[in-house]
Amino acid sequence: MAASASGTAKKAAKGTSRAQVNRTIVEFDKDQELHAYREMLLIRRFEEKAGQLYGMGMIGGFCHLYIGQEAVVVGMQMAAKEGDQVVTSYRDHGHMLACDMDPKGVMAELTGRKDGYSKGKGGSMHMFSREKNFFGGHGIVGAQVSIGTGLAFANKYRGNDNVSFIYMGDGASNQGQVYESFNMAKLWNLPAIYVIENNKYGMGTSVERSSSNTDLSQRGISFGIPGEQVDGMDVRAVMAAAERAIEWAREGKGPYILEMITYRYRGHSMSDPAKYRSKEEVQKMRNEHDPIEQVRQRLIDGGLASEDELKAIDKDIRAIVSDSADFAQTNPEPDESELWTDIYMPL
Amino acid sequence: MPIKVLMPALSPTMEEGNLAKWVKKEGDKIEIGDVIAEIETDKATMEVESVDEGTLGKIVVAEGAQGVKVNELIALILEEGEDASALDSVSSDAAPAPAAEAPAAPASVPAEPKSAAPVTVPDVEDEPEIPAGTPMKTQTVREALRDGMAEEMRRDDDVFLIGEEVAQYQGAYKISQGMLEEFGERRVIDTPITEHGFTGLAAGAAMAGLRPIVEFMTFNFAMQAIDHIINSSAKTLYMSGGQIHNPIVFRGPNGAAARVAAQHSQDYTAWYSQIPGLIVVHPYTASDYKGLIKSAIRTNNPVVFLENEILYGHSFDVPDVEDFTVPLGKARIARKGSDVTIVSFGMGMQHSLHAAEELAKEGIEAEVIDLRTIRPLDTETIIRSVIKTGRCVVVEEGWPQASTASEVAFRVMDQAFDYLDAPVARVCGKDVPMPYASNLEKLALPNVAEVIAAVKAVTYTA
Ligand SMILES: Cc1ncc(C[n+]2csc(CCOP(=O)(O)OP(=O)(O)O)c2C)c(N)n1
Ligand SMILES: [Mg+2]
Question: Is the complex ipTM higher than 0.90?
Fold first, then answer.
């Protein structure tokens, strides 16, 4: 059949040259480098610990780790201001930590304990903090995109100058409601920043196998939404892109799309053996593009921090993570009466 | 102390696995994130990454071992500065660190909190909801609904109306007449035809504290948006441990209209009524439409508010008082009677009341209960009546399987079994997609004759 022929033709037509990726950076000063280092390391160590607790059976169900993608949410949050909202998918632990939520509360939710952010009733995929303007943690692929557009709508309705950061995966970017949301966001010029975290796979399906045009930053073109591909492994490039998008949205020009080219080191969830990609592919990313290692190198090479200073930070982070893990294992399970609470607000 | 490496659980269901391969050997340096071994789970072969750094001091479970239990000690890692002598301090049968024991089944499931007192018939009559002498005016359901929404929008700037054709066109069924003019396009918002998207948008706006009224042109189209109604709005209070409430109303015409056939004629009452976290309202009179839409907008819970296109043009008396509201979760006794209890809602009420009049001519006095709110269901009002009458018929336009009637019948059996003089009967829509042909459509819907027949059956007067 002609399928194979047209298949090849299609392949040649698609695929993005990485030359398009915007690598413009914000030059970080020492404080910014150290801040980014700390934040990303906290996420990395937290996730490793979560993986370990999962292995021990302390965390159940689905657990999706953010290891490898840390620069995205950290760079975005470095450009955010008080009152800006964040919403994302089930791969949400990193976003919560970057929103300054308490690692103890997050870890205790992962273990299903009473002082978890959702009293143990939401779990890894469903967590919120009204106080920190973190609106979930959503388990339905793509749902957060319309919800986040509603957060942006609320900002515009109230006439404040806050923006909403709406994260989704490359896989999620093929959901119909994403385009329904893009259309409304541009139609009404809502302050919505769509961050597509392109980690190259949606579960086991590569972007090439799921997307007719693999340049996801252009997914807003028919709506008139600007978009760009960003080096999502370089926290400085992420922050630079975030600043451009935020300025655009705060000025009332409407939504903006940032496609972050990133990578997840671990499987899709804890039970994914990741047979759909080669070990070399993973190793190459880790060795050549690791977001934390990049900052570390700059700190050392630029003489901004000594090995000892960085060791002290590592130790500090490890203590925070280990405290959160201890808390999450010793904190009691929710009282049985909680089964029946939080279903309705008083009528 | 050397660090213990335990057999990890790497799937939600894994209890044991095989140690397929050691990637690192004793004496190898280990960095955080290094793959140290491969194990076979119940699903796949998985790599085990180290979460600690140091030197692989000792392999406790050899390569090839089968059926290694989760949390069994498989290796020891020496920390920086430790040498092999430290290994002696750890016995290999050391009990694994806090092994998560399989959750024991709770001794008993805590009971759903509800009033413990058994339902009885009170000696004194309940106060009427609308006191005698209240000034009334005649209004259509359409006008009452519009007035209710407009009053709430005047009261609270956070309330807005969003949907297809709600603004400039004044509503596909002319419910929002005059609202764009009064409230402007900031608060009366025409959307593209994009149910999934605008419902999700409204759900998000509600999470941020606004109070959207989402109009579906009809509820048939809400199936494209049902994920947001259920997963995003109804469950979020629970999933957030009480942090995020969802003050949102989903409203629009529901059920059969006239000759619009299968895809445009479905009653969703029973569907939504199954969902904890949702309030489901389905009124009959204009007065209830007005009073209940106001309460629906005010509550901090998500409300599915089901309307009926045929009723839009029907007129009823509506209290002509300031800020008239009707409480959510309370049924209304529409007609008093002592021989049989007819439970219904929405259009079913029309058939039920007509049937009651006919039956009265034959000396059968039916008590007719208008549920108004289907979730939470006002069981108490139903049970009180059945205690009195000993017989019950449920009337609804929806399909019979897993219907509102099924639920009411169960509750009556559960709480008033000893009072029943006959099995509960029901009159539902027929178990078929709605046909187009005029004669078939009539057959598919409940009618007065069927209600009369059901009453005669339970009163053994046929
Ligand atoms: C509507 C829906 N369909 C399918 C799933 C199952 N599922 C969960 S995650 C996932 C892959 C999503 O990939 P992507 O959007 O790229 O995000 P990533 O996991 O890479 O962060 C799938 C298919 C789901 N949760 N929701
Ligand atoms: Mg992905």
Answer: yes
